[in-house]
Design brief:
elongated, about 80% helix, single chain, 2 strands, about 5% strand, two-stranded parallel sheet, mainly alpha
């Protein structure tokens, strides 16, 4: 049975590697296609890149979103401090006194500890869900406007292709001269200020 699990994980990992390779290959084919088609149409191929992380960090709206999420996190964290301290103290007590307790007392203390640990983990999961919801609420409008801003800049500058600069998208290298992150950041702030 364990061999079947290992074999399954190996297949999953190989599948992920194949999918990443396919995504990268599709990107290369797409760039090659546009590089061959666009010049034949008499137009110059203009490419630009942007860094989404940099835009979120440097733009005013991104900074406000990050501050809102940090405030929510700061609001939630104190709720867990007491539980963490209590669980740590209980674990230390079990470790120190376990040899002196009877099996029945030891089993009861361990059961109580595990119950409190599960309750704590549920609280953590609830808080993580709440943070995800907050992130979605705060970032979704920004990403919606970001798409519109990128489209406007691409049309205004006559760009043929605009890539998000990250390894997960298959872009391994791009010259800094192609980066339009600052321009996008400023345009996003201007558009969101309206």
């Amino acid at each position: 049975m364990p061999f079947a699990r290992v074999a399954t994980w190996i297949l999953i990992i190989k599948g992920c590697i194949v999918m990443k390779s396919l995504r990268f290959l599709c990107g290369v084919v797409l760039v090659a296609f546009f590089a061959s088609v666009v010049p034949s149409l008499g137009a110059e191929l203009k490419i630009a890149t942007f860094n989404i992380q940099q835009i979120i960090e440097k733009s005013r709206v991104g900074t406000e979103a990050r501050k809102a999420m940090e405030a929510k996190k700061a609001e939630l964290e104190p709720k867990f401090k007491g539980d963490q301290d209590a669980l740590k103290a209980q674990a230390e007590e079990i470790e120190k006194k376990a040899s002196a307790w009877s099996e029945e007392v030891k089993a009861g203390k361990e059961r109580d500890y595990q119950k409190k640990m599960r309750e704590y983990q549920l609280k953590v999961e609830d808080a993580q869900f709440e943070m995800k919801q907050m992130e979605k609420k705060v970032l979704e409008p920004i990403f919606k406007e970001l798409q519109a801003v990128i489209n406007e800049i691409a049309k205004a500058d006559g760009l043929s292709l605009v890539f998000e600069k990250s390894r997960s998208n298959g872009l391994l290298y791009s010259a800094e001269s192609l980066d339009i992150s600052d321009k996008i950041s400023k345009a996003l702030d201007a558009k969101m200020a309206k």
